[in-house]
Design goal:
Length: about 500
């Protein structure tokens, strides 16, 4: 098939355009079109994966605006696993959203006519599809300005999806999200322009020529700050609890990808291209990651709102991968990337299950819940699986990822920096906080005495279109946990020689 990477990129765009143009007649088929288009995209990724596993690097290049601003696309051992997991999550959440969005539209726009409700339903899905477009473009792009463009696509898609789908509080939160996203992207663009001023190119493949030059430290710092704003590391975390708790719950997994994708960019742009000059940032980044782990976990433990609980946990979880990147050994960086993929799968399950609870009960305050496992055993099972994935329990991939990552972190400490050992031990101890808030929330929501008001209600697990995709995600995590070489061999091709 010709232009596979371009097909992967444009399929969600074409599906979005189709839904937009037929939004008045398409009705509830909009969700199925989005889900099937993303399933087709995942199939194309599988075809590319067969080539990359065979030892090839798949590249395509298209003229975009000017000779120095090209839409270059590349699938290699670093981008392919990231693309595969992200496309899987996008497809799973599209199926999950079919019934969820229908229910939310009925609640939020109950006073509107049926045609107006259908227009809101279609609006959600044609906006939803710009998330996979932004993710795919960011992952595959080989040009810094192309990456900036796709980062802005994600920021704008999140803004419109929040501002035009929900209540007034969500509109205010959308502007907060927009401001942080634009500032971070503009810092990224500024760093890219500094690169261009020194190298007269915007291609990532040429960044190694910046090594040792006088502007390299400031450029790395500028890239780091812009990406740390996406990662929500302390002190750039303040947007995360509010934005991640107030968007439509069915896109929570996508926002976890949105935040975590900066890790991929740090590896691709800084670690692989400017590794020697990046070394001085390593230990400070590890220390900041440990502080963020602990702070994020304590903040999560203080939450009583089920969505804010899941939102605040993202702050802590992202920091684990940052810890691996900061150690700057092959094992720690490969393990950090593997943990990034494991985290976005676990967070998709954890937050989406929280959405099921809110969808079914209409309650976000965990103090008003309890005993739901009797009425919703499938949902309770999914929540426990999500807790295990976030806490790094075997056989899920997060356990294997943490094992590999911390092996690399301790290796760094033994060779170069004893202080790194202290940070690594602190990171291991911080896992106990993850176990505390995840399984503690499970006890509050699903076990113990049930709320008398809920006892009288006819509550049950939702349809398979919501639960089925989550079990697929959990199954994928188990497969990667038992057979990590599917991912690690590919990562090692690119990262192993650093």
């Amino acid at each position: 098939m010709p232009s596979l990477l371009l097909q992967i990129l444009v399929t969600p765009v074409l599906a979005s355009l189709l839904i937009f143009l037929t939004r008045r007649t398409l009705g509830r088929f909009a969700g199925w079109i989005a889900a099937l288009a993303l399933t087709y995209t995942a199939g194309l990724v599988t075809l590319v994966g067969a080539k990359v596993y065979g030892g090839k690097v798949v590249t395509e290049e298209y003229l975009l605006i000017a000779p120095d601003i090209r839409l270059g696309l590349m699938a290699d051992g670093l981008s392919l696993p990231t693309l595969g997991v992200v496309c899987l999550l996008c497809a799973a959440l599209a199926f999950y959203s079919i019934r969820y969005v229908e229910h939310r539209v009925e609640l939020l726009y109950a006073d509107e006519s049926g045609s107006i409700q259908l227009s809101y339903y279609a609006r959600f899905f044609y906006l939803f599809l710009f998330f996979p477009t932004g993710f795919i473009g960011t992952i595959l792009s080989t040009n810094l300005v192309s990456i900036y463009f796709f980062l802005e696509v994600l920021t704008i898609a999140l803004f419109f999806l929040m501002a035009y789908f929900g209540y007034q509080e969500r509109v205010r939160t959308a502007f907060i999200s927009l401001a942080w996203g634009i500032i971070g992207a503009l810092l990224f663009l500024t760093a890219s322009l500094i690169v261009y001023s020194q190298l007269e190119t915007l291609e990532i493949s040429a960044l190694h020529r910046l090594a040792g030059q006088r502007f390299v430290t400031g450029t790395i710092a500028l890239f780091l700050v812009s990406l740390m704003m996406k990662l929500a590391l302390v002190p750039f975390h303040v947007w995360m609890p509010r934005v991640h708790a107030e968007h439509p719950t069915c896109i929570a997994g996508l926002l976890a990808v949105y935040a975590n994708l900066a890790l991929y960019l740090i590896v691709r742009i800084l670690v692989m291209s400017l590794g020697v000059d990046f070394q001085p940032f390593g230990v400070p980044l590890m220390a900041l990651a440990l502080f963020t782990m602990v702070y994020g976990s304590l903040l999560t433990l203080a939450q009583t709102d089920i969505k804010r609980l899941a939102a605040c946990s993202t702050i802590s979880q992202i920091a684990y991968s940052v810890l691996g990147l900061g150690a700057l050994t092959s094992a720690s960086v490969e393990g950090g990337m593997f943990f990034f993929l494991s985290h976005i799968m676990g967070k998709t399950l954890f937050f989406s299950t929280a959405g099921i609870v809110v969808y079914t009960t209409g309650i976000r305050d965990m103090r008003k819940l309890g005993g739901l496992a009797r009425k919703m055993p499938v949902t309770a099972t999914l929540w426990i699986i999500g807790c295990m994935m976030l806490s790094g329990f075997p056989p899920f991939s997060s356990f294997t990822a943490e094992w590999i990552m911390f092996t690399g972190v301790f290796e760094r400490g033994l060779i170069n920096s004893p202080f790194s050992i202290v940070i690594a031990i602190g990171g291991l101890l911080a896992i106990m906080l993850t176990v505390a808030y995840s399984f503690g929330s499970a006890r509050k929501i699903f076990f113990g005495p049930i709320n008398p008001e809920l006892e009288q209600r006819d509550l049950s697990d939702p349809s398979w279109t919501m639960t089925g995709p989550l079990f697929v995600v959990a199954g994928t995590s188990i497969v990667l946990g038992l057979y990590p070489r599917f991912v690690m061999d590919l990562f090692h091709r690119i990262i192993g020689g650093m």
